[in-house]
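Sequence in, structure out. Go.
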Amino acid sequence: MGMHNDFTPEELSRQNEQLMWDLHRLYDTHGEDIQSLARIRTRLQKNNIKPLYENQSAFTPAPPMVRGGEKENTMKLIGFRSSSNGKVWQQRLGALAAVVIAAILVGSLLFVLSHSRQPASGGQPNHGQTTPIVQPSPTSRPANTPTATNTPTPTKTPVTFQVTGIDMAVQPSSIAGLACGSNLTVTYTATFHVPANSPGGTVDFTYTVDNGRGSTPASIQFAPGQTTKTYTFTSSGALSPDNTFPGNGGVMTTSPNSITSKLIKPTGTCTQQTSFQVTGVDLVVSPSSIAGIACNTQVTFTYTATFHAAAGSGGGTVQFMWTANNGRSSTNASVTFAPGQTTKTYTFSVSGTLPPDHTFPGVAEVITTSPNSVNSPQVKPSGQCQ
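Output:
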């Protein structure tokens, strides 16, 4: 290796001694046993490297941190004999390298063993004993552990069950344009309100549909916590020109407390009726012609009368009679008009054999007798049989 050309044997010996003392001082700080170095010495002797007992006087005094009593023993354990022989110097340098590597390996091993013997909590070794598991008390928590905050559930405070208000609605909302005298059903809806979180209960009340002149008792049941409840009632009648129907509808509670709703009715007024009377009668026949039909053929003729009444009337019944043989005989009949209705139809028929003298079919006509008298046109099928 050529290292003996740079240093004299004495200088190299002193440097080796200083290196050994540095290693000894490093492991002395950890309380390591001298036996570790003794094992290194034994290993070096197996490699035919002799101790330097004869060169003890050449060693430099130990550093201050090394105890005096251990210096001499250490020097004996790790010292080497000086030699000017090049091969001996190569062996010594190799041995020194082995010492350094061995010291590093021993230190690493001791460090690992030292840490592996320590309990996880930093206390004394367990030595095979089972460590009891200590359950933390309910109030103890590890450091820096966030504490869960429980949000209290709001407590619903019961309130007194009572009616706080009543809303009213009506259908139809208006009767404007409807003919007076026509029949109508009016529906009223009452909506009762009670406070939230109430225990529920029964509401007793009366309702009216005629401005309070008459009333009807009724009741509804609220479930616990329910805040609204509806109730419907109806009134039927003919729309009167004096607007007495439909009347005002409303509700008044009697239990658990007394409260009165507003009165409500459809807006607008009905249309005043005109006098019910017939303004005209139309009459048609089918078939409208017998031309081309052979005489002595059996034929049925159907007549349709259309009655007309004045607009805006309150309706009524039309009495009339009809004839299909030039008035030699007649049949009485009637039709009924609803309020506001303006037209109504009626049909009648006659059957017979077409005679060669053309006396059948005869002339047909309709004549009203009530509420007023009106005659329809006289009609008969055109043409003649052959």
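Check: Helices lie at 9-28, 35-46, 68-78, 86-116. The mean pLDDT is 78.
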